[in-house]
Prior knowledge:
Layout: E1 2-10, E2 15-26, E3 29-34, E4 47-50, E5 55-62, H1 69-72, E6 77-82, E7 87-96, E8 99-103, E9 107-110, E10 115-120, E11 129-135, E12 139-150, E13 153-162, E14 166-176, E15 182-191, E16 212-214, E17 223-225, E18 228-238, E19 242-253, E20 256-263, E21 268-270, E22 272-279, E23 287-295, E24 298-307, E25 315-322, E26 326-338, E27 341-352, E28 358-365, E29 369-373, E30 379-380, E31 384-391, E32 396-406
Parallel strand pairs: 1-15, 13-23, 16-19, 20-28
Antiparallel strand pairs: 1-2, 2-12, 3-11, 4-12, 5-11, 6-7, 6-10, 7-8, 8-9, 13-14, 14-19, 15-18, 17-18, 20-22, 21-26, 22-25, 23-24, 26-27, 27-32, 28-31, 29-32, 30-31
Amino acid sequence: MGSDTTVVLYNSAKIGVVEKTLELELNEGMTKVPLNELAGLNIAEVTIRPLSGGVQVLGVFSRGSNGDVYSANVGGEVEIKLRSGEVIKGKFLGFKNGKIAVEGDGYYLINPNEVAYFKATNLEGKANAYAVLQADKAGKYNISVTYRVANMSWESRYKLYIGDDAKLYGYIVLNNPTAQEFKDAKVLLVAGDVQLYQALPQPRVLYAKAGTGVETVEVGQPEKVEAFYLYKLGIVDLNPSSTMMYPYISMEVPFEREYLYESWPGNGERPVYESISFKTDKVLPAGIVEIYRETDDGALLIGERHIEHTPKGESLRIGLGRDYDLKGTTTILEQKNGEGYAYYKIQITLENFGNETKTVIVRHHKWGKIVSSSIEPIDETANYVEFKVTLKPGEKKDIVFDYENRW
């Protein structure tokens, strides 16, 4: 039985979607085909499609597991390692009040979030899942098998060096904390907010990360697919219980120094940060940016910030550190909520207590569209609106705007 594997990872959901093309040798009539990699997975999330004529799928079955590995191992011997390093061995009794119940040298109730790994009989390669196919005649047939693996994901990590110019380096970080290995897999990375229902993680994927491997791969510009961006990572070995990091962005651009006040729909005073801004010539998925200031003695780490998904050609603004001469305050003047409707009227007050004229970018995070504002926004997305305000020494200015969201 040969196979061709594609793994799709998401930066907004901790799952991997695996699609394998299998070449099967089938008898005429019905054939039961063991599918070891599906052992313990939720059968409702498994899709099997014939890619050849003359064959049909009669069903997919999970023997004695009720669709998950936990149920398959009730009454069996298990070994559980906690994140603290403690190892517990004994008979798995199932769940009690959402906790894993084990009877060994004592009676244990274990929080699933504290589990580093869970070893049980059905994780050792014994199949408890199979498909029944019916072929018109004996021969070789191709079928596609698609299933989910919990806790796999990818993320972006950036390093920003500030000197005469801004140097930005981006890395793709692949997380495979599972016991599964995917050799020579075609890996696709989806950037965007994918909404999925996720049940309790399966024990087979509760493994601690083992280490980091770094190598260089060619990652092209993303393709726009519906509301998402798709990166083609190419052929990669996704090793079990591992984290892998690949460089994929390198850019050096001039930047402008500004001041950034970030606001949310809530009353209160918040800091104003010194910031830099520059236009990006690449799509930047959301991620953490490590910020370094270049000095004669080397690069000095001065902080970390989170950036939102930034399209190509957009200005990226990153806060560096608090400016104590500037003060920002957000006040909710009016708020209305109804079924499928929300309305906010906001006042933002900025004050300059320093001796220099400073320009402040005000970014208010919101959902919905601006209805009106006392000054013209310089940018608006579904998630935020931005204004630019220049303050002379001792000056105080207000911005008043309202927005609504319907769904």
